[in-house]
Target: XRE family transcriptional regulator
Amino acid sequence: MKHYSVPLTPDLARAARALTQVSVDEIGRSASLDLARVRDFEHRGIPLSVDDNYRLRVALEEFGAVFFTEDGQGGYGVRRKHTAAKIRQLSRWEGEGGPAHV
Model:
């Protein structure tokens, strides 16, 4: 399990989900968390266990969120892993050539 120096906060989780355009249902399934737990964390600030917090963060990162810690330039935050142009390019590539054969 990777160690993060700063835990995922409710505001970062909401921002990451908005940036990556992932639904609460989808992120909950990906993180193996109940929908109500994700909503309670994001909107009511009800804390998650260390393991649940970790799984939610990893799931958001898998959908393209990149978290950064506070530095001398400003506060902590989140951004998308890829630019909008790169996301369009990746989407185009995924549709090329038909299904993969194993």
